[in-house]
Structures are given as structure tokens and as C-alpha cells.
User: Fold this.
Amino acid sequence: MRRTMCVGLLAFLGCAIATGCDRGEHPDQIGRAAPVFAISDGQHSVDLTKLRGKVVVLNFWASWCAPCVEEMPSLEALQRELPQIQVVAVASDEDFATYQGYVAQHHVDLMTVFDQKQTSNALYGSFRFPETYIIDKQGVIRRKLIGAQEFTSPSFVKYLTKLAS
Assistant:
């Protein structure tokens, strides 16, 4: 009985890991125009059409998401290191007060906005956070990154610098 439970648990975990890793890392979106949206939460606004001409690092996140919280300092460091690109962090928290509290407590210094209805991430098919899209100057999706990233890695900074030039 115990052995059967262990085998069943291992099979379940194997399936969960396999499906968790295959969340569309090479989606049909790569090479296509990025869906555009405009969001305002009453304090901050983001309009992707106004960012055309800049490389955009579009990050979908939530304060309850541990990997999102883990990568946030890296996103902030990237924005400081490469001011020629624009990091946009779209939050899908449960409520505005939770989002505001997180941003204030952690001194988040990025272009961030709360999307209560989750319309922006729905356009991209992103519902499991964090997911990040790299959009070139012409508004074309070049990469999709799933899970926490180290955005200031030399190879990633080199890639963005080349894309921005």
C-alpha cells in the first residue's frame, strides 16, 4: 500500500513537473506583433502603443507569486543598467490595496500598473506568473521567458543591448 502511494506520488510529480516546464516556451507569438493594451489603475498608466520605438521588457507578475518577488530586484536593476529599454511590470494581484502595499513596502521603482481585470495578460495567454515578453522596437515579440529570471546576466544584457541598437 505504502509503495503504491509512493509510486503514484512520483508519477503525479513527474507529470506536474513535465507540464510545468512546457508552458509554451516557444509560442506561436514569437515573431508576431505584440498585442497592445492601455491600462490605468488610477495612479499609474501604461499604453504599449506609446512605447513603440523602444525595446520593452513586459513582465506579468503578482505579489503573492514567490518567483515574481524573487525576480523583481533583477528587473529593477535591469531598468537602471539599460535606460534605453523600458521595463513594464503588470500586476495581477487580488486587490489594489495588496498591490499598493507591496509596491510601497518594497520600494518598487519600475513602470508598474495594476490590472484588476487581467485583460493585458489574457491578450498574451499568460495566467501563471511570472512570464516576461521581450518586444522589439517595431512591436514584435522576440522572446517569452517563463519563471524567475536573472535579468542582469551578461548574456541577457548583451541581447537587449543589441536589440536596442
Notes: The longest strand covers residues 55-61. Residues 2-21 form the longest helix (20 residues). The chain is about 40% helix and 20% strand.
